[in-house]
Design brief:
Blueprint lengths: L7 E5 L26 H6 L28 H19 L7 H9 L3 H7 L4 H7 L2 H10 L18 H14 L2 H17 L3 E6 L5 E6 L3 E6 L3 E6 L5 E6 L5 E6 L3 E6 L3 E6 L5 E6 L5 E6 L3 E6 L4 E5 L5 E5 L6 E7 L2 E6 L3 E6 L5 E6 L5 E6 L3 E6 L3 E6 L5 E6 L5 E7 L2 E6 L3 E6 L4 E7 L5 E6 L3 E6 L3 E6 L11
Helix pairs in contact: 3-6, 6-8
Organism: Circinella minor
Protein name: F-box domain-containing protein
Pfam family, one: WD40
């Protein structure tokens, strides 16, 4: 798409130091049951008496006991034939089984064993590349692909046509290829092997970012918002409008909302990239923003949370309660979760502004928080990450490892990625509390971080954006 070379510096990252091995289902060996022969066949392959020759055995000072056996050359020849037949039969035993049973046996093998059997024989190789086997293995591992219907609209076809189209899509997918891409991707996450790129273009520190499959959007102390192409790492657009540092931003397919140290928020049209409206009301820097299809929620250093109407930009309500700056806000359903310098995490009802629950346990100010409707994860200046039960307020887990302020974090399913002023990026397993990977990324504080299945991208104080790509050279477009 672009003829120019990427304006970025590519480096090969050193492998992360895994604190514990990442448990991958594929690494657990599965042994097949021993091949069973009927009693008559077993007798057929037994050695004849003439070949059962054992060396003499001595017991103490006892006499040497010997037994003479006659060796019949015909028996030796027969034995060799039987052994060869046994070897060939075992080698190709899958060819003698029904297809369904053979494919099921093959699907029980781990990935490395499957690769090995592809060179055993033509029959085994044909089974190895069977599409149904890999589709079943994908489903059993809980891995999926994004399928596109060829019809104009999913709603415009009947249920029967939908199922038929789904079947056709399944047959068209190369499941072996998708499985190998997913396996390699997870293996890289397991080992911490990435290809990293530094994106350079901002003139001062980068405070915030958001990205998707195609683009990256960043906000900086240089008062600009930049759009980057994630294929070429070229800057596509630069937006100006704030009179202070751009501290936060969020976007969807229609709008983007940015907050600044100039105490204002700006709503941008994502189609035209033009400023739609400016929201004024805070008396301090706007440290974070989030929104849904109804409301825009902002947190500020004035200790307050503002709720705005997405439709017209009017201020709906001001939520007061924190006694220190509100550093981070999350919106899920009718609940707002906020993190504050007063060392608390609080949950609010967006319709009434009342505090539903307060989460206490951090020893210092809380810099970042995320909420998925059931769990809350917070990072603090006390160098710990805490996982909370959103319903009960109970602290489920405390993760330790960072050596300075944890400025930013994100979690998806049971994976947490965090970063902060100790200049490290860490990957955690929320189910065990173990730190799986730790990347030391030079001499720069990290202000914001996000990740998806392919990448970890961080905004840094040294004016750069670091893209850590786990999927370099893989085709993961259709992997879920």
């Amino acid at each position: 798409m672009y003829s120019k070379k990427p304006q970025s510096c590519e480096i090969e990252m050193t492998e992360a130091s895994p604190s514990s091995p990442y448990p991958m289902a594929l690494d657990s060996p599965i042994s097949l049951p021993a091949f069973y022969y009927p009693q008559q066949q077993q007798q057929q392959f037994m050695f004849p008496t003439e070949l059962a020759i054992a060396p003499p055995v001595r017991f103490g000072q006892g006499k040497k006991i010997e037994q003479r056996y006659t060796i019949n050359p015909l028996h030796i020849y027969t034995h060799q034939i039987n052994q060869s037949f046994l070897f060939l039969y075992m080698l190709d035993f899958l060819a003698h089984l029904p297809y369904e049973l053979s494919s099921r046996i093959i699907s029980l093998l781990d990935f490395k064993s499957l690769i090995s059997i592809s060179s055993v024989s033509k029959q085994w190789r044909a089974l190895y590349f069977d599409n149904d086997i890999w589709r079943r293995m994908m489903h059993e591992q809980g891995w999926g692909v994004q399928q596109q219907l060829t019809s104009n609209s999913r709603d415009s076809i009947s249920e029967q046509e939908n199922k038929q189209q789904q079947y056709m899509n399944d047959q068209a997918i190369n499941w072996h290829f998708q499985f190998t891409q997913k396996y390699q991707l997870l293996k890289r996450w397991n080992n911490g092997k990435v290809v990293s790129h530094f994106i350079m273009g901002h003139k001062q520190g980068v405070y915030c970012l958001q990205f998707d499959d195609d683009k990256l959007v960043t906000g900086s102390r240089d008062r600009t918002i930049k759009f980057w192409d994630l294929m070429s790492y070229q800057c596509l657009y630069t937006l100006q409008g704030h009179q202070g540092s751009v501290l936060c931003l969020k976007y969807d397919k229609d709008i983007m909302v940015s907050g600044s140290s100039d105490s204002t928020l700006i709503v941008w049209d994502m189609h035209t990239l033009q400023m739609v409206k400016q929201l004024k009301g805070h008396e301090g820097s706007v440290s974070d923003v989030c929104f849904d299809d109804r409301y825009i929620v902002s947190g500020s250093k004035d200790n307050n949370i503002h709720v705005w109407s997405r439709t017209n930009g009017e201020l709906v309500r001001v939520i007061r309660g924190h006694c220190a700056p509100v550093n981070n806000v999350c919106l899920y359903g009718d609940h707002i979760v906020s993190a504050s310098g007063d060392a608390t995490v609080r949950m609010w009802d967006i319709t009434t502004g009342t505090c539903i629950r307060q989460f206490t346990g951090h020893m210092h100010g809380v810099a970042c928080v995320r909420y998925d409707g059931k769990r809350i994860v917070s990072g603090s200046n006390d160098r710990t990450i805490k996982v909370w039960d959103a319903e009960t307020g109970q602290n489920i887990m405390t993760l330790e490892g960072h050596t300075d302020l944890i400025r930013t974090l994100q979690f998806v399913d049971n994976k947490i990625v965090s970063a902060g002023y100790d200049q490290s990026i860490r990957v955690w397993d929320m189910s065990t509390g173990q730190c799986l990977l730790s990347f030391q990324n030079g001499h720069s504080r990290i202000f914001n971080i996000q990740f998806d299945k392919n990448r970890i991208i961080s905004a840094r104080q040294d004016c750069n954006i670091l893209v850590m790509d786990f999927a370099h050279g893989l085709d993961t477009r259709y992997l879920q």
